[in-house]
Amino acid sequence: MALKDLPADARPREKLLARGPSALSDTELLALLLRTGTRGRGVFQMAGEVLARFDGLAGLLHASGDELRTVNGLGGPAKRSELLAVLELARRAVAEQLKAREVFGSPDAVKNYLQLHLARRPHEVFAALFLDAQNRLIAMEELFRGTLTQTSVYPREVVLKALHHHSAAVVLAHNHPSGTVQPSRADEALTQTLKAALALVDVRVLDHVIVAPGQALSMAEKGLL
């Protein structure tokens, strides 16, 4: 059924305006954003299928443009670009939180931010959050791609980036495309190597976060730093 054919009190837009966005389900919110379905497939059915495809709203927020393109009804640029815009707004909103306050005053926000950026990448990406003396975010940079080892991640480059941003501390991060967030021995060895290198220029490593779709692990919380 098209949105315009629903009773007025069941239409997502009218329901949102009358009762607030929290009154809408994930499917209704997504249907409101999509506006129309496809031939023989109403917008609510399409919204439900999109959420199922990505295992819910959190998975959808982590989806890439290429992944959205494979969904029936999102092959064209219009709807896909709107969803990607929402994703980018979510990333920027979290980034603003991290820039405005101490990063470890909101550890869940750090994990969510890193998941939004890295969790659904098809290859491993190593990144760093560069922090000021109050542990507020200065910048995030993706530094290396590929299997992470002590030979593929160059400590010198990480140190140079930290100095460039005048960082007092960093949070290291990378993703595991395999879906598990358990650190390998190589992850632990790399963390210690970078911690020692950055200590030479008086930059602290506060954490190393590993992310995968729907999961995040803090090595500091696990006592591995």
UniProtKB/TrEMBL annotation:
UniProt entry keywords in alphabetical sequence: Hydrolase, Metal-binding, Metalloprotease, Protease, Zinc
**MPN domain span:** 103-225
Which GO biological process categories is it annotated with?
proteolysis
PROSITE patterns cross-referenced by the UniProt entry: MPN, UPF0758
Q: Which residues form the signal peptide?
A: none
The record's section on InterPro entries has: MPN, RadC_JAB, RuvA_2-like, UPF0758, UPF0758_CS, UPF0758_N
A molecular-function term among this protein's GO annotations: metallopeptidase activity
Q: Which family does it belong to?
A: Belongs to the UPF0758 family.
What name does UniProt use for this protein?
A: DNA repair protein RadC
